[in-house]
């Protein structure tokens, strides 16, 4: 085990680190890189709570032989010249936050992006901050709604890395921001601007990533926080009940996940004669495979072939100024008073 020497030896001027984290994404859309990514992701006991020795056999014997091919094909549809959308956009958010915090905060603040799975890793991000002499670190996982599968898993990885440090920085961790007024406001503005340019919709669907229903039954607050975000956003938009709904997407495996399901909802709306639909994914601060491909393409087909006539996906907040301002406010409120 590698034990780092004490940070006070560092001659660099002390700073406060902001460790901005997201889920992570494969290094490329090749089947091999997607398999490596899925192996790390799906081996996390916070993500798949299946008894271990058996899960190892199922994962390596079945899932990693089938899923990587299918997922890689989906990744190829959204991959950009600069790389995976999730990584490219998360980097843009980190850079924009670095700029806006430099203007707002007195002390020296250094923003570093890290991914829970794949690269840039959390270990590398923490090491960068250690070398920058970050005596305090504020962690902001880009998950507005808390879930053990995402938020707590990020915490697990940070504590695993820090277990190997002799000297620990002061730490703060933002658990969730699902009801943060700035975040709700930024979402509402994004919906309004979208309608102003693309026309009004008959119904707005708020689609969140799902988790297994059994995790919620055992106390994961994720579904409740999604409901609160959805209610606040509908209220901010002054939407009557019959003009919107919320649902859960990205189901994996056979056990029941949180319902209603996004695909079923859109098929039902198409069949019922709902004509124009807009879909927004408030739980994804950065566009990624699950928004661009699953919502932007796959679910469009479900709605249109069920009888719908117009379908638009409203992009994530990404690095838009209202999003950066909301995240800057959030960070500033959680920072030490003398930064
Ligand atoms: C199998 C269990 C999974 C759980 C539980 C889960 C929870 C969860 N995920 C996100 C956010 C994202 N997930 C993304 C991709 C993705 N998710 C799973 C599985 C679970 N997610 C898989 C297997 C994949 C990979 C793609 C695929 O094969 O379908 C992504 C996008 C990553 C990218 O590279 O673009 C995000 C973001 C949340 C918020 C969440 C629980 C609340
Ligand atoms: Fe996921
Ligand atoms: Fe998906």
Distance between the termini: 32 Å
Task: Tell me which CATH architecture of one domain applies here.
Answer: 3-Layer(aba) Sandwich
Report strand %. 5-15%
Query: Numbering strands along the chain, what is their spatial order in the largest sheet?
Result: 2-1-3-4
CATH class of one domain: Alpha Beta
**List of distinct ligands in this structure:** the ligand C=CC1=C(C)c2cc3[nH]c(cc4nc(cc5[nH]c(cc1n2)c(C)c5CCC(=O)O)C(CCC(=O)O)=C4C)c(C)c3C=C, fe (ii) ion
> What characteristic shape results from the CA principal axes?
globular
β-strand number: 8
Q: What does the main sheet amount to?
A: 4 strands, parallel
Per DSSP, the total helix count is: 11
Low-confidence blocks of residues: none
Helix content: 40-55%
What is the CATH third-level topology name of one domain?
A: Rossmann fold
What is the helix/strand order?
A: EHHHEHEHEHEHHEHEHEH
Query: What oligomeric state do the depicted chains represent?
Result: single chain
Structural class: alpha/beta
Please tell me the overall pLDDT: 96
Write the layout of secondary structure elements.
Blueprint: E1 15-22, H1 31-42, H2 52-78, H3 85-104, E2 109-115, H4 122-131, E3 134-141, H5 148-162, E4 170-173, H6 181-198, E5 203-209, H7 213-217, H8 222-236, E6 244-249, H9 262-272, E7 276-280, H10 289-305, E8 310-314, H11 321-334
Parallel strand pairs: 1-2, 1-3, 3-4, 5-6, 5-7, 7-8
Helix pairs in contact: 1-2, 3-11, 6-8, 6-11, 9-10
